[in-house]
Design a protein that fits this description.
By secondary structure, the chain is mostly helical. It is 46% helix and 3% strand. The structure holds copper (II) ion. It holds the Pfam family Tyrosinase.
């Protein structure tokens, strides 16, 4: 009888927890869900199909339309809590247009953190994929899937990139650091600047050219980049933050799940939960390069960081049972020639003055994010941490 009562209590509690979740989500589960892959995991046939869709979208003016929209709403969708929901909806709309051309089209992501030591050496930035730096006075891109394109917004110009630091972008953000604030941040008011002023900004700046402008969706890297940013938000959401939405709206009022997404007349709650409503997609882990990140990276952290450093920067990992540490340390990932993978961690690039002014970011908030990232690098290097990435 006692057993029966407690089972019943558990059932009732379980049910009420479910009701709360339902009330928040308020949307039906998707009948089918497609998966967004890492770009480099596409098969040759999938990449050909993707290129064809993108060329058709360019021909029909969709690159120009999305560049226009992003530029038009620029000040409402950056520097406040609209950042994640707007860009999730925006990329999903883009992807939905692509799926009208080919039902098998999905928007891949670029696992940028894997290339953080030497971004210019990324396979993604080669002629096999999206192409490299622009050439000549106008920095026109001549290779990759957008090589030689003329973009229509704001007026006809060659599609351009202008890599930072004279063509050799300095390091951006390590997977360890991103993982660290995914574990530490408990509010959107913390998490949003931690991404927007770190990885989000330095990728835009270091790719340069069209990516440096309000009309950055002219470069398909914008979509690869924001799909990755969206994936990181989803990782954070899965870490007990599924419905966390707080901080300022663009007019400085408090944002909530019922606030409309800028431009879109739909509440933020409609995009919160992947696999529900019209958000019928999910993310694959990186089948090519993921292994070191998922198991190897975590065991590297557990094996090589002193307990106090681990709990300060990776509170969730620190709580994991010690059995994870019994895994053998991962083999070092192969690095670009001349780069010693597994050596000390470099400082990440900072945002430029121009970028901060263009977005009207609060300089003190940017400084806070950048100094946290540097403290992290110092702590890892002081602990003698050697990254498998
Ligand atoms: Cu944006």
């Amino acid at each position: 009888m006692k057993l029966f009562v407690s089972t019943l209590a558990a059932a009732v509690f379980g049910l009420s927890a479910l009701n709360t979740a339902d009330a928040q989500q308020n949307q039906p589960a998707c009948s089918s869900v497609y998966t967004r892959p890492e770009l480099l995991s596409l098969t040759p046939a999938q990449w050909t199909n993707t290129r064809n869709v993108l060329s058709a979208m360019q021909r029909d003016g969709w690159f120009g339309w999305f560049a226009y929209l992003h530029n038009q709403w620029f000040s409402q969708i950056h520097g406040n809590s609209q950042f994640f929901p707007f860009h999730r909806r925006f990329v999903h709309d883009w992807e939905s247009v692509g799926r009208r051309y080919s039902g098998s089209f999905v928007q891949p992501y670029w696992d940028e953190m894997r290339d953080y030591r030497v971004p210019a050496a990324s396979q993604v930035l080669t002629s096999n994929w999206v192409g490299g730096n622009g050439q000549g006075a106008n920095r026109c891109v001549t290779n990759g899937n957008q090589g030689g394109w003329t973009m229509s917004f704001p007026s006809n110009h060659c599609f351009s990139r202008n890599f930072g630091n004279n063509g050799n972008p300095t390091s951006w953000y390590s997977p360890e650091y991103i993982q660290s604030f995914i574990q530490r941040d408990t509010t959107m008011a913390q998490f949003r600047p931690d991404i927007e002023y770190s990885l989000h900004g330095v990728v835009h700046i270091n790719i340069g050219g069209d990516m440096l402008q309000g009309y950055s969706p002219n470069d398909w890297i914008f979509m690869l980049h924001h799909t990755n940013i969206d994936r990181l938000w989803w990782q954070w959401q899965l870490n007990n933050r599924m419905w966390t939405m707080d901080g300022p709206n663009f007019d400085n009022s408090a944002i909530s799940l019922d606030t409309n997404i800028a431009y879109y007349n739909q509440p933020i709650r409609s995009v919160m939960q992947l696999g529900y409503g019209s958000m019928c997609y999910q993310y694959a882990s990186n089948p090519i390069r993921r292994r070191a990140l998922d198991s190897g990276l975590e065991s590297a952290l557990i094996n090589s960081l002193p307990k106090d450093v681990l709990s300060a920067w990776f509170p969730d990992t620190a709580k994991k049972p010690a059995i994870v540490a019994l895994r053998p340390p991962p083999p070092l990932a192969s690095a670009a020639p001349g780069v010693s993978s597994g050596s000390g961690m470099p400082y990440p690039a900072k945002l430029t003055q121009q970028w901060i002014q263009m977005h009207k970011y609060n300089k003190a908030d940017v400084d806070k994010v950048e100094s946290d990232a540097r403290k992290f690098v110092d702590a890892m290097n002081k602990a003698g941490y050697r990254s498998p990435v």
